[in-house]
Amino acid sequence: MTPLQRYIGRRILQSIPLCFGIILVSFALLKLTPGDLVDVMAGESGGATAEYIEELRAAYGLDVPVHVQFARYVWGVLQFDLGYSFRQSMPVSDLILERLPATILLSVSALIIALAVGVTLGVFAARRRGTWIDEGISVLSTIGFAIPLFWVGLMFIVIFSINLRWLPSSGMASVGGPAGGWLVQAVDVLRHLVLPALTLSLFYLSIYVRLTRSAVLEVQELDFVRTARAKGLREWRIVVRHVLRNALLPIVTITGLQLGSVFSGTIVIETVFGWPGIGRLANDAVMSRDLQLLLGVFLFSTLMVVLINLLVDLVYVTLDPRVERA
Amino acid sequence: MTISLTNAPAATRSGLRLNDILRSRPLVVGLALLAAALFCALSADLLFPGDPRDMVGRANLWPGKDPALPLGTDMMGRDMLAALVHSSRSSLLVGFMATTLSILLGVVAGSLAGYFGGWTDDVLMRICELFQIMPSLLFAIILVVIIGPTVWSISFAIGITSWPQVARLVRAEAMRVSQLDFVHAAMTMGMGHGRIIVKHVLPNSLAPVMVTASILIAHAILSDASLSFLGLGDPGTMSWGTMVGTGRPLLRTAWYMTALPGGAIFLTVMAFMLIGNGLNDLFNPRLK
Predict the structure, then answer these.
(1) Which of B141, B145, B248 is closest, CB to CB, to A154?
(2) Hey, CA dihedral for A43, A45, A49, A53, is it positive or negative?
(3) Which of B91, B119, B138 to mutate to test the interface with A (most CBs of A within 10 A)?
(4) ipTM here
(5) Is B133 within 8 Å of A306 (Cβ atoms)?
(6) How many CB atoms are located within 10 Å of the residue B191 CB?
(7) Beta carbons of A305 and B135 less than 8 Å apart
(8) pTM, whole model, 2 decimals?
């Protein structure tokens, strides 16, 4: 086995206790809820006799000791069974899979916007260091950190949907769908995507601006850049091919590290814009106090973050030969 | 006050001079905003006595229409300005309490992990990783749903998701200090671990922890606002996030009901971010 393969194997093995910990936390939270599933059901149907409650408990496997319940829970998770949501009358995993594509579309778009705009602004700021453009961009990036995303979303709706009527204010597609082929429908979805993706991108954008700016500042003065200039290469080519490459690695790392925050952001933004993704599913679960669903979403998203971080790590290792693989 | 002829960072000169603080623009602006917020919180009862939830006028009155109600009224006829000023309390309270919890947990975990190393370090860092990988807002939501929404449960939920940052910071410092010669000397002399940690590890971590604390308070206020917006605020107290949430159905006709409290959140969070940035520049001046 090559060192790379050994490293990959090791990283995967290291993730396993973390995943186990996450499943444990989920289970503990489920158990901590005052009143269990059966109490909820009995309450909703207006009361039940003690014998009926016992039967229900047995049927849902709640009468066995806690560690047996936990073992069954783990086994279920491994088979991608995250429980059943009574309010929505569907298995949790089906609900999640149904909404997943919408969230992926939203977060990937937001990421792309944040990358494109953030890196550009960061380079701008670095190359004009000390000028008011630099100061202005720094101020904007601080504002981007401090601003409540739900507020920005609502203000965008006020400006762009209500007053200017340029863009729709909620949902993923017009009700009933526009008549026309897939292109018309795609454009419709895109029109709905603009505001939420723009709002979600603000947080990442601020991070990328700062990161790119300091990475570019750091690398600009180094010898190999001076050599490139002496060789007569054009400035923009130097910036893109040499300087930005160095910014790439911290950008990749930070993207992975901030994934949890991105997911938290999607909860709020999907709620504000009525975007039918996992975030809004979580909000529905909160509204209806549906803890099975809520914890299913929690477990799923956390495991996703672990998985994506693992992938980011592996990409990192293949990109940067300096990383220790032994 | 001595005149400093060198450009050494503030932390290497003894103490922080007023001059340094006044020279840093972010710090000045941040502290000014914070003073405004604290003023609101502390004098809320004096300026606007009575319950801010009392109905005082006709509903949906726009700001500027009635000089007695400069910021208008909400959908129930409550005074917006009184509500805004009173809400500053819960946001600031949650911000401070959550951050205090984070710092306490983080300092204890970090100093134990960094100082003792070995499997203490391994176990604590694993737990740290676990808390860092969970999406913090979602975890906080779950905790608040389980415990029930009160100012205390919200502070607890937010505080318990942000301690890893502090822990890592303090751990790094503890690891550095535990290698130093005078620590070995102290141990040979019989000085207990506890005293060494308190006398040497903690003071050195103070500066980075202070910077982190401001950012943590900013994050805590944002998280609290998000939780309240999603309907998980303490039903007994007014808060800016809840105001944005309740004003949302009237977005078309009365968007000031969401704009004003949201703006208040923004300014308060901005205050703490600026203070954090200013402190950071003071303690670690980079090539600007």
Answers:
(1) B248
(2) negative
(3) B138
(4) 0.86
(5) yes
(6) 14
(7) yes
(8) 0.86
